[in-house]
Amino acid sequence: MLDLIGRRVRILICAGGTGGHVYPALAAVASLRVARAAAGDLELLWVGSVGGMEVEMVREAGIKMETILAGGVVGKGLSGGVLGLAKLAAGAAKALRVISRFRPEAIFVTGGYTAVPVTLAGWLRRIPMVVYLPDVQPGLAVCWAARLSRRVLVTMAESGRYFNNSNVTVTGYPLRPEIVRATRETRESARERLNLGAGRPTVLVVGGSRGARSINQAALAAGPEWIGDGAQVLHVSGQLDWSAVQKQRKEFSPETRAHYHIFPYLRDEMGLALRAADIAVARAGASCLGEFPAFGLPAVLVPYPHAWRYQRSNAEALSEHGAAIWIEDKDLQRSLSLTAGELLRDSDRLAAMGRKAAALAVPEAAERVAAELIAMAAGAG
């Protein structure tokens, strides 16, 4: 870090496609900004995808941004593959121009289609690159980027078997500052701020910003039973199913409605929801590897069946550590009520799962990633 004091440091960030790629990159940026007094005058540029979900979040964070074309090739058919190749070629050409103009000392990549043209351009310009894998199992884009990068950072040690080099470092999953702040809340204060009952075990149901229809439907079916057993539900439906969830909740009895709390989406308050919960029901996106352990939160995970093996690998990893139980999406309607209900009734087992989840937490993960980037920019990586 000392080599960087007193001079401008430029780091290019490439992350997009899903929140699992974008949120840890934003967390690393927050730590980089905290460290800027030691790292010199920090300048950041984010490269995302045209029309990507990351665009609004990056701009809200006050980070300069460029967008490029990118697309998939494998599994897209002939016409889709040709279109994907055309997008990658156009994206690589623009990435070369962006890198030539910005002149970064290091490039940080977390995944998504944009990783391919950006890492190709970075390799051609001989810029040192750091790849971070949020999920347990890498996709094709991360595997490609890893081959061209000097350092591979991973959330869990299980990921090491997917890479054929020695430059793999386990950092943990970088958490956003608002999530870290929520870990310091008490469960009681979090419930109070979300207008939840103080004495009832809380089931957090969440499927992401857009939602997970099968989880929403299964939770609505199981909720009255959980509430009848003395629990309460905090259900984050996602925007797509919000109207349907509102409509079905209106059909509950007044007693059930009083303890079935619904939100279309939680962003800044998501940390409070995690702190308030005793158990989570969720997809198995990358964030579950960092956020649930941070709160010692046991989980019933339902991998999205069309996400290749990424989510299933995440769910299997947490289950093997004793921190979660996972259910196939096709079995959800039949199994969710019983699986979560049994855990709610077995406080000893639930507490043991919580301790095993907490043992996986790496609260300093964002700082670890930031330190790797600073070292790479200084030429020490």
Structural commentary:
This protein has helices at 19-34, 36-39, 54-60, 77-102, 115-124, 140-148, 177-182, 187-193, 213-228, 242-250, 254-258, 270-276, 288-294, 310-320, 332-345, 347-358, 365-377, and strands at 8-15, 41-49, 64-68, 106-111, 129-133, 151-154, 168-170, 202-206, 232-236, 260-263, 279-282, 299-301, 324-326. The protein starts with 7 loop residues before the first strand and ends with a helix. 47% of the residues lie in helices and 17% in strands. The protein contains 17 helices and 13 strands. The mean pLDDT is 90. Helix 5 (115-124) packs parallel to helix 6 (140-148), helix 8 (187-193) crosses helix 12 (270-276) and helix 9 runs parallel beside helix 15. With 381 residues, the protein is an alpha/beta fold. Helix 3 (54-60) links the parallel strand 2 (41-49) and strand 3. The strands form two sheets. A seven-stranded parallel beta sheet has the order 3-2-1-4-5-6-7, with helices on both faces. Strands 10-9-8-11-12-13 form a six-stranded parallel beta sheet, sandwiched between helices. The longest helix has 26 residues, at 77-102.
What is the general shape? elongated
- Give the distance, in angstroms, between the N- and C-terminal Cα atoms: 11 Å
Give the tally of β-strands: 13
Order of adjacent strands in the largest pleated sheet: 3-2-1-4-5-6-7
Query: From the alpha-carbon coordinates, what is the Rg to the nearest angstrom?
Result: 21 Å
Average pLDDT: 90
Helix content: 40-55%
Q: Which spans have pLDDT < 50 for at least 5 consecutive residues? A: none
Look at the helices and sheets and give the structural class. Answer: alpha/beta
Largest pleated sheet: 7 strands, parallel
Order of helices and strands: EHHEHEHEHEHEEHHEHEHHEHEHEHEHHH
Number of helical segments with 4 or more residues: 17
Strand content: 15-25%
